[in-house]
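Q: Convert this sequence to structure tokens.
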Amino acid sequence: MENPLLKYKNDTNDSYIRFDLIKDEHFEPAFEVALATAKENLQKIIDNPDTPTFENTVEAMEYISEDLDRVSTIFFDLKESNTNKTLDSLAQKISPILAEYANDISFNQKLFEKVKYVFDSKPNLETKEQYRLLKKTYKSFVRNGALLSEEDKQLVRNYDKEIVSLRQSFSENLLAANNFYILNIKNEEDLSGLPERIKNIAKEEAIEKNKEGWVFTLKYTSMAPFMKYSDKEQLRKEMWLESNTEGMKEPFDNREIIIKISKLRKKLANVLGYKSHAHFVLEDRMAKTPENVQKFFSALYETSRPLAEKDFETLRSYKEKLTGEKELFPWDIAYYSEKISKENFDFDEELIRPYLSMDLVIKGIFEHARLLYGLNFSERKDIPIYHDDVKVFEVKKETGDFMGLLYLDLFPRDSKRNGAWADMIKGQYKINNINIRPNVVIVASLTKPTADSPSLLTSYEASTIFHEFGHALHVLLSDCQYASLSGYNATWDFVELPSQLMESWLHKKEGFNVFAKHYQTSEPLPDNLLEASLKSDRFLSAWRMLGQLGASVLDMAWHNENVESISNLEEFETNIKKPFNLFNKHYKGTSQSTSFAHVFSAGAGYSAGYYSYHWAEVLAADAFEYFKEKGLFSREVADKFKENILSKGNTEEPLELYRTFRGRDADPKALFRHKGLIK
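A:
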């Protein structure tokens, strides 16, 4: 019987993945065949007796592992969004093998000599993209150890294997820890303060888990409303502590895993000729050096810290006014923030939910894409899916040209890791005069429907969909020759530009008015409620900025040249985050690092790159000011953004792409204006 992972290939522009035919047992044999095929294709390039050229060497390398790339992409997408013990076990087995294969390429001396010959010959190529691919390919060999001795190459192989295995373990521990804890409330008095809708969801969660009463979990859609509305401080404290001790306790302890990963990354960077993992990573990013990132951090800190202190005092004094207690605790932030929003802005998050049903928000992102980029979306119920929660949409231009498929997988489940992300499950590229169009999936864990209502979202959850949709547009509007340069295969400090820009429309009335209507009456979102929502959203913006900045500094600290001295994770993290901790107190046994999936998990690549969110946020704020100047739905500006950013992938230097779009560099102060921190 033919393996569906190998039979159905990306050989037509509208091909899609046969999830209906793929079973867990197909993956291991598919990996074996695809890996063997890739090695054969690689050997053909190495053994080619002809003089090395761009076409027979560099370009040929783009296509040697099409089967392997497809199998890997599908496997790891399912591993993140719908895993099980079989997939977890195979991930531990196959990940080191894939790392070894990548090193087989990087360390093949004959292949490197061919690439170097082409690079040194300075060929006269037809497009900027070809030059970019040549430079990227050569640089990749050098950065990954092609010039090392055989002894050092073996060290790199060993370190890579161990890091990959540890990252898998981190991911599995985190998912297990997240699923392990439940807050099972049996006394209705302990639900004080919670809206009826939240209680109904908790009741359904209890039924699902065969528990009496009401169940709350550490998943965002359960924990966030509990922390915001529960009058029971002791229960809020319990949930906060459980959330902040994920990965700190047996049998899901990530502490030693993180220390090992960081030290191995440092050793690997040293062997490759860099001071630290951060120096290695940033050389190939817009920021270029850790020193530049530190200067960037300092500027953000200087502005956000004093304003965050004011936010903190506002919350603390409000709590004292209500309760007589002078001390503010971490589990108080969401609760008293909500109270102040009600009192000062006449805003309650629950009031806006009926206007943000998931179906309408999805229609909203589609309408934004139509107004800005001329895209149309239609649901395809005939295309196979990997879980009943998933919906598939066909994407076309106004002209009718097919642009790709968008999969939406937006509800939480135990088999899915926390968070939200977009993933290219089939990339865009051109071959044999065919423009292979992409398949992209948006994965999230947002509020589920109940027996009484559809999925009704918070403004934050709506913003999450808009954010990930920005990544999806980066893929769907890609128009590149080579898969390795297409879509969001850009530098990490540039890749968040489209996503954070897309969020910006939710900071304006015109953006909300495109879709926000009451799910029962179809009445538009009232202006006073929208205004209250926007004011509430800006409240504590300095506090949030300082918190995310602390996470970025922590990431960089784990990846600088001093990591060998780390022996106690909690002590190390506490010292690093002290300037960002306005509570002036550390709660023993808590940590951010042990659940810092962006940096340490198998499914993410933000190590020494978490700063990218802030970096790209500056670009996005500056870009949105351009839209505000010309009109929020200006086709002129949108066309420039599409042509110079979204369609280009990684085919040119990101700074040059932005300059071409904007006509200048981004104004750093645009971010502070966007957040209302300065005028």
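The radius of gyration is 25 Å.
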